[in-house]
Design goal:
With 226 residues, the protein is an alpha+beta fold. The chain has 2 domains: 73 residues, Glutaredoxin, CATH 3.40.30; 134 residues, Glutathione S-transferase Yfyf (Class Pi), Chain A, domain 2. Helix content is 57%, strand content 8%. It has 10 helices and 4 strands. It has a 4-stranded mixed β-sheet with strand order 2-1-3-4, with helices on one face. Strand 3 and strand 4 form a beta hairpin. Helix 1 runs parallel beside helix 3, helix 4 runs antiparallel to helix 5 and helix 5 crosses helix 8. The site of glutathione (GSH) has 10 residues, from helix 3. GO terms for molecular function: glutathione transferase activity. It is found in: Cytoplasm, Cytosol. Is involved in the conjugation of reduced glutathione to a wide number of exogenous and endogenous hydrophobic electrophiles.
């Protein structure tokens, strides 16, 4: 099958997605910790377009972008299938995965980054995107149905990283009154041993986000519009 290596950072949720998928499928891999402040020649060579982690290296083939990597893993290692079998259900899972990465995560980041009145408006907007996800999990144990699947792994950032973003950004988005189904799903998801055992310590993630937020605020500072 070829050797499997994962270039990543411990506190990153796109990297956690790949770790979960590999572990669920029982794939042995070597984790190569990346220094994002001093990117390695291996990262620059294997992901020259985005220069971001995660990158999966299978044999000599590099694969970048966590959603792409998840699909690759699911196609190559057939045990514990992640994507639904039905083509329509697959398309629905992909739709929500794209929504989460393009709308949900950025809106939560924006709410964390902003301050003052703009923060309040950004919190309302972030909650609106989360409400759309809440509707998707209502009455279900997992996004994948009775079994954890691709979309659960994609949404997995909510089980720890969302709370860390709340802490780093001084805000509260998710509570069990407004988001009962998402909060219950977080418990179900976190109770799966493979997930639970491979979560990084929350304080490491909070520090990682604090660093990121300070950096983003420093970039926005000279611009009066932000
Ligand atoms: N869309 C990418 C996002 C990956 C991403 O944002 N990675 C971050 C770490 S969490 C990174 O490598 N940042 C380095 C940089 O932006 O220079 C994916 O899903 O893989």
């Amino acid at each position: 099958m070829g050797e499997v290596k994962l270039i990543g950072v411990d506190a990153s949720f796109p990297c956690a997605r790949i770790i979960w998928a590999l572990k669920l499928k029982g794939v042995e891999y070597e984790f190569i910790e990346e220094d994002l402040l001093n990117k390695s020649s291996l990262l620059l060579k294997t992901n020259p377009v985005h220069k971001k982690v995660p990158v999966l290296i299978h044999g000599t083939n590099p694969i970048a972008e966590s959603l792409v990597i998840l699909e690759y893993i699911d196609e190559v290692w057939k045990t514990c299938p992640l994507l639904p079998v039905d083509p329509y259900e697959r398309s629905v899972a992909r739709f929500w995965a794209k929504f989460v990465d393009e709308k949900c995560v950025p809106s939560v980041w924006e709410a964390a980054r902003l301050e003052g009145d703009k923060k309040e408006a950004a919190i309302v907007s972030a909650k609106q995107t989360l409400q759309l996800v809440e509707k998707q999990i209502e009455g279900k144990r997992f996004f994948g149905g009775e079994q954890l699947g691709y979309l659960d792994i994609v949404m997995g950032w909510m089980c720890l990283w969302l709370g860390a973003m709340e802490e780093a950004g001084g805000m509260k988005l998710l509570d069990s009154e407004e988001f009962p189904s998402l909060c219950e799903w977080i418990l179900n998801f976190t109770m799966v041993p493979t997930i639970h055992e491979s979560l990084p310590p929350k304080q490491n993630v909070v520090k990682y986000f604090q660093f990121g937020l300070n950096y983003m605020r420093s970039l926005a500072a000279p611009n009066a519009q932000n």
